[in-house]
Each structure stands twice: as C-alpha cells, then as structure tokens.
Amino acid sequence: MQDLRSFGWYAAKLKPHLPKKAFKPVPARLWGGLAYLVVTVMGLLTIGLVDVSPLIYLPISLVIGTSFAALGFLGHEILHGTVVRKPWLRDFLGAVAFWPLSTGPKLWRKWHNLTHHVHTQHEEHDPDSWPTLERIMRSRLLRWVYKLPLPVRAFFSFCSLSFQFTVHSVNMFVVYLKEFNPRKRPAVFLEAILPWMTWIGLLVWVGPVKWIFMFLLPLLVANLIVMAYISTNHRLNPTTDVNDPLVNSLTVTVPKWVDVLHFNFSYHTEHHLFPGMSSKYYPEVKKLIKEHWPERYHEMRFDKALIALWKTPRPYQDRVLVDPSSGNVFGALGEGLDTGKLKNIARKEKNFKFVSSITKSKNQKVDK
Fold first, then answer.
1. What is the residue-wise DSSP string for 205-221?
2. Most CB atoms within 10 A, among 1, 33, 142, 286?
3. Element containing residue 359 per DSSP (H, E)
C-alpha cells in the first residue's frame, strides 16, 4: 500500500485551486427537494384517495420510492451544512428530507458526520465499515453463513440492500443514543419515533394493501437505491488506519442525468475530501484530484462496481478480501483488484493456509 495521507492533507493542497464560492452554502438545491416532495405527496394522495387496481399503484409506488431515495441524498447534503448554515433550519430541513427513511438529523450527524467521516474504513471505529475476518469468526452464526458459497452469499447480500439502510439506521440509534447528553436524548428519541408514528398512522388510515404501495414498497426501493451507492462507496476499498480518502473511498460514474437527479452523490471520494462543500462543485474537485494524484484516485463505472461487489467477498484480512468458504483471496482497490478484468479477479494464495488457521483458531476459541 502507498503511504497514507489524511483527508486534511489533500484538502489543504486543493483548496487554493478552488473558487471561494465553492465553500459557501447553495440553498438553490432546495428547489430539487421541493420537486421531490411534491411528487411524493401527490403520489401518496393518489394511492390513498383513488380506488383502482393495485397494478395501477405499482408504477406510482416506484416513483415514490425513487423520490424517497433522492430526498435522502439531499438530506445528507443538508445535514453537512452545504445547503443552509443555521443549525435549527439545517436540522428541520434535514429531518423533512430524511423523514421517508425515518432517520433523525441529530443521530445522522453523530453517526455519519462525526464518526464515519472521521474514522472512514477504520476497522474498529467506523460504524459503516465491513468487519474483518477475525471479528466475523467470533460469531457462531456468521461462521456458519461464511461457509456458504460466495455466489449464494452475494445473492442474499444484494437482496438485503432493499432493507439494509433502515436496519442499520435503527442499529445506529441503539448504539449512539447513550452517547448523547442526557438532556438531548429526548429530542433524539423524538426525531427517531415521529417518522415511524407517521407511517404507522398511515397504515391505520388506508389499510394494509394501500400502505404497501404507499410506504413499504417505496421504502424497499429507496433502500435499494441508497445502499447500491453506499455499498460501492468503500466496500471495494481496503481498511486503513489513517483516513486517506484516495485509498479508502471510491467514486462511481453514472450518466449526467442520474447525477442531476441524485445531487452528485456518485462523487464520493470528493465528498470525503470536502464534506462541507456543496456537491455542485465536486466535478471541479475531481478534475483537480486527477491532475495532482491520478495514480491514487479510484473511480469505476457504477454497474462495474456492483459487479465487483458481487464477485468479491466482504471479510477483510490484512487489507485484502478473503473467502473462507473457498480459500480464495481477492485484492481490494489499490491492493491488486483489477477492475478491468472482473471475470477472473480471485487468486489462490499459498499463505491462505495461515488465514485458515486463524479461522480455525478463532472457531476453537469461541466454541470453548
């Protein structure tokens, strides 16, 4: 692995080359959020008030789901302070944007801004990092799961993207609630429970059939879209002790119109260098990164990144990815993963017996 640099080191090098306006909030981004909010409300009212065949509800439900996801992308930007700076307004607008995903602004800033961004891809401190083989082997259930063939695990892993964000958000609430000041915990709890009260109230009002199309299916669609991005952000990158975004983050490329719809969420390395900058300016940051450090920068077409995720296992062992069920070792980005040859990206290594012996040792230790 190359020498690691902190995100602050890169930012200091690039900041003089960026316009001053790039570091100011861009409230015009709210117009896009308003459009998605109108589409969402109109879709909900149409399904709720019009009695037709559920087949008619299906396309409306899918549109609502894509709007849920886009509002989440905007909420992410708002809560980084890149749209408005006043704390009360930032949190209010962030709460509205994250309402469909039922994630409160105080929890999100604690979990995402203050922890994930500070400790990105640190195997112990990043709440979003995938665990190491050593950690996985401490669990009897996970040891069983990782005996399954990689294609089977990949299938269920991709299916889980449709609910992974919601489940992880609830888990983060449980993990971080106790870390808030006792005087702030009621507000954090209220932010978490109010959206669910809304959606449960909707179930009581419209009944289970319409509720499926008004909330459950859109939530699954939103989870799938959001997690398709999030799962490519770091899970092909190695773990790092130093938070180096050019090593531990990946930018994916999508058609321009998708970037417009998703508020440039694809520019993830750029976001980790300048989380307080509006994503409107990330194309300029990308250009500068490729001028200064082209050999360190990771970018991949979105569909190829998803294919690479399907073909690689998730447990980390010494910064590479290992598959306990087959004994194959897969390079991470910058550690041997050849994104141009995704048909054959696994390799057998002689020293995998060492990894296997660790696995066996952990099994014996846990079984005692």
1. HH-HHHHIIIIIHHHHH
2. 33
3. helix 352-367
The predicted model scores a pTM of 0.90
The helices-and-strands tally (H runs, E runs) of the chain is 17, 6
Residue 324 in any domain: the answer is no
SS3 7: helix
Only one residue has tokens 């509800």, namely 57
Domain total in the chain: 1
If you write DSSP's letter for every residue of 94-159 in order, what string do you get?
Answer: HHHHHGGGT--HHHHIIIIIIIITTSTT-TTT-TTSPPBHHHHTT-HHHHHHTTS-HHHHHHHHHH
The one-character DSSP state at 250 is -
CB proximity list for 217: less than 8 A, separation 6 or greater: 58, 61, 62, 65
Looking at residue 342, its pLDDT comes to 54
Residue 320 lies in a domain: no
In the block, residue with structure tokens 């660790």: 358
Answer whether 103's CB lies under 8 Å from 219's CB. no
Instruction: Give the Å distances, CA to CA, from 275 to 267, 338, 362.
Output: 11, 29, 39
83: containing domain: 7-307
Using CB atoms within 10 A of its CB, is residue 260 exposed (0-12), middle (13-18) or buried (19+)? exposed
pLDDT for the residue 346: 52
In the predicted model, what is the mean pLDDT of residues 66-86?
97
User: Per-residue pLDDT for 102 more than 90?
Assistant: yes
Q: Alpha carbon of 187 to those of 91, 115, 180, 181, 226: distances in Å?
A: 12, 20, 10, 10, 26
353 in any annotated domain? no
**From start to end of 208-287, where are the E strands?**
251-253
Q: Is residue 160 part of a domain?
A: yes
Q: How far apart are CA 26 and CA 83, in angstroms?
A: 5
